[in-house]
C-alpha cells in the first residue's frame, strides 16, 4: 500500500509543475489598474471635510446588490489571512514563493477597486462597511486545512482554493449583473477574470497532486467538499446576506454544484480514474453519495425559494392594491 507523502515531498515533487503554471499564468494575466474602473467624477467630501455624510437615499444599489457587494468586498479584505494560509501551506522559495507573492498582489487589487467604487458612488454606508471590515479582519480566517489538521496541509489548501476561487468568480460575475450599473458590471467582470486564472493555477496543481498521490489527494478533496464554507462565513451579517444572494441567484446551491463542484471534478476525471486503491475507491463512493444528496438538496432549496418568492410577490400585490384603493 502506497504511503502518504509529506508536505515537503509534495512541494518538492510538484515544484516543476508549479513553475510551469506560474509561467503560464504570467503569460495570460492582463495588467489592469483599479483607478480605471471607478467613476471619480461622482465623488464628493464627507462631513469631516465639510461635505455631507452618507444617507441611504444616496445609494442607487438594490438591497440585494448592496448585500452582495459588501459580502464580496469583506471577503477580499481578509487577504492578509489568506496570504498567511497560502504562505504557510506552500513555500516561500522558488516557484511557490513567486506564486504566493504574485497571487497576493493581484488579489489586493480587487478590494481596492470595489471599495473605491462603493465609496465614490455612495453605494453603501462607509462607516458600517469599515466597522464590518474591522470585525472580519480581526477574526481572520481559519482554512479547512487547519481545521482538518493533516500533516500535508498543502493538499487541503490547494483543494479548497480551487473550489473557492471558482465560487468567488461566479459570485462576482453575478453581483455585477444585479448592480444595474455598467461601470460596476465591467469592474466585477475584470475581477472575475482574475479569479478564473487563479482557479486554473490551483486546479492544475491539485490535478498534478492527484496524479502523484491519488488516494491522498482525493481524501483532501472529499473532506473539503463535504465541509465547504465560503471564506466570508465569519463576517457580520453573512447569513442574512448569503440568504439574499442565494434567493436572488447570485450564489446558490445549484450554482455551487453545477458551476463549481461538478466542472472541477470532471476536469480531474474523478469518477473515471482507475489509479485509486480500494481505500481511494471507498472515498470516491463517499463523495458520490455526498453529491447525490446535494442534488436532492438543490431541488428542496429551490422549491422552498419559489414558495418564498411567490409569497413575497403576493404580499407586494396586496400592498399595491391597498395603496391604490385609498
What is the gist of this entry?
This protein has helices at 7-28, 63-77, 79-89, 94-121, 126-139, 144-148, 153-178, 182-212, 214-226, 238-247, 253-267, 278-325. With 326 residues, it is an all-alpha fold.
What ranges have pLDDT less than 50 throughout 5 or more consecutive residues? none
Distance from first to last alpha carbon: 79 Å
What string, H for helix and E for strand, traces the elements in order? HHHHHHHHHHHH
The number of distinct helices, counting runs of at least 4 residues, comes to: 12
Task: Describe the structure in your own words.
The chain is mostly helical and 326 residues long. Helices cover 73% and strands 0% of the residues. The chain is built from 12 helices and no strands. The longest helix has 48 residues, at 278-325. It starts with 6 loop residues before the first helix and ends with a helix.
